[in-house]
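I had to read the description of the data format several times before I understood it. For illustration, here is how one protein appears when written out as sequence plus structure tokens:
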Amino acid sequence: MDDLPFLLKSSLENFYTLVTEGPLDRESRAEYNITITFTDLGTPRLKTQLNITVTVSDVNDNAPAFSQTSYTLRVRENNSPALHIGSVSATDRDSGANAQVTYSLLPPHDPQLPLGSLVSINADNGQLFALRSLDFEALQAFEFRVGAADRGSPALSSQALVRVLVADANDNAPFVLYPLQNGSAPCTELVPRAAEAGYLVAKVVAVDGDSGQNAWLSYQLLKATEPGLFGVWAHNGEVRTARPLSERDAVKHRLLVLVRDHGEPPLSASVTLHVLLVDGFSQPYLPLPDAAVAEARADPLTVYLVVALASVSSLFLFSVLVFVAVQLCRRRRAASGGGCSVPEGPFPGHLVDFSGAGTLSHSYQYEVCLRGGSGTGEFKFLKPIMPNFQGHSSGPAEENPNFGFSIQ
């Protein structure tokens, strides 16, 4: 029984007991084959042997142990639900029910992590099935702990950390930040005609929600009003003049720029730039873009109606003023009593008399009507005193002294 943790102990003559010398560990050795030899003291000595098999029974003295203290699993975004993303494994050195392991998800440290809606674990084999499609842009990584417990009494358990990394897929097209493409009036870039080759016209700014090469962007000029006049730098989106401008170049230019990522397959977006060539930034007038001109001419009927309304209003106001002036004139004449003083003396002047003979008259007569009680001699109205055609003769103009004007 050399090197065996057993000992024969005699309590009575020819009576022996097999006892252990120390604790037995079933996980180190579960069975012992012992041969006991008995020898007498005679001559010759006779002996006999006894074979004993000792089986060490198990007790639940070992907790389950994971193959790794932490696991890192990777899953591609936009995965199908119930996708197997990986497994954890734990073993127990005990036997029987003491070695049967069950797996479970432990509550996460972050209470805001909806772990129950993200992953599940098979209690029997430790397989981890994602419960829903994962989005890299919303959740790039998350971690949780899994537990493994045996079925002994009392049950022993252990735990391990699981970290899930969501791999990016090229599911986001580039998004253009500038110039804005929101359907409003287009933004026009002004370029002086004195610009030399390499003049910076504009810079297309775009972003991609993906990562890695899926977010690497390149720029390309797809279409231009005048090919060869402008160019786009592939890596930074800068739009520059490719040659000096000339007077023969058109005033307005439209550029179509393509922005593409490096994913597989690549996704792209396009942006339109409007460029206006000007003689200088200080010129007082710049032609309107086509959209603004179209908007200004969209409803000429409204302009006509406004003009017509203004004309009618002005005519009505003028008529009212004339009517008021006439009424005031009549009231003033009525208040003055119609009295007029007519000077007897002739007023010479250089007026033409068409009294019938066609000759120049040498005498004129004015009728002065003064406002009664005014005390002033200001003239109010001027009216001609028609000649007396009674007894009209075809004589010279001097014979018709009654032709003239009166101030009233």
About this structure: The radius of gyration is 59 Å. The chain has five domains: 6-55, 65-167, 175-286, 299-335, 336-408. Helices lie at 115-118, 290-296, 300-335. Residues 299-335 form one domain.
